[in-house]
Amino acid sequence: MAIKSKSVEKNDKKESIFKNIGKDFTTIAIVLIPIAIGINQVGRLISTALGLPIFLDTIGTIFAAMLAGPWVAGAAGFLTNVVTAIAYGRPTSVFFGLVQLGLGLVAGYCTYKGWFKIWWHVPIIGVVLAATATLITSPISVLVMGGISGTGIDLVFAFFQATGAKFWTSIIASRFLTDLLDKAIIATYLPWLTIKGLPEKYVKLFRYAKLIK
Question: How many alpha carbons lie under 13 Å from residue 171 in its C-beta half-sphere?
C-alpha cells in the first residue's frame, strides 16, 4: 500500500511539472520571484564592484529552482535580465536571459527528480549547470558582443588567447572555467546548503524543498 502511495505521488508530480505548470506558481512561489531577482542583482553588483571574473547573478535563480521548481526559476532568471536591461539601459542583457532560463529549468528539473537529495549528486549537477551556461552563453556573447563582455571574464579570455588558443576555444574555455566556480560551486552549493539547513516548518512552505531535504 505504501508503494502504491509513493507511485501515485510520483505521477502527481510529473503531471504538475509538465501539464499543470500553473500549480507551481503558488502565492509563496510568486513572492519568491522578486526575492530571487534581488539576490541575483546583489550578486551582480558585488561582481561588478570587485571586477571579478565571475558573475554571481544566478544564485537566486538556482535558489528558486530548489524551492519552487523549474518554471518559477526560469521566470525569475529571465526576469532578472529584463530588470538589468531596463534599470541599467543594457538591452543586450535580455539575450543573456536565455542563460538564466536554461539554468532555472535544468536546476529545477534536477530538483524535481530528487537528485539534489544525495550529496554526491550535487557536484555532478553543478558541472552540468556550468556546461549548460557555457553552451548558451558562448554563442550569445560572440553574436551580441563580439566575445568581449567588459567584465573580469575578459582577462581569462585574454589569457587563453595569449597561450595561442583559437578564438572559439578561448571563448568556451574561459567561460567554462569561470562557470565551474560561479555556477558549479557558488550558485549551486550556497542554495543547497541553505535549504539543507532549513527548519522543517519552512521546508513545508515550498513545493520542491522537501525533495532536497
Answer: 19
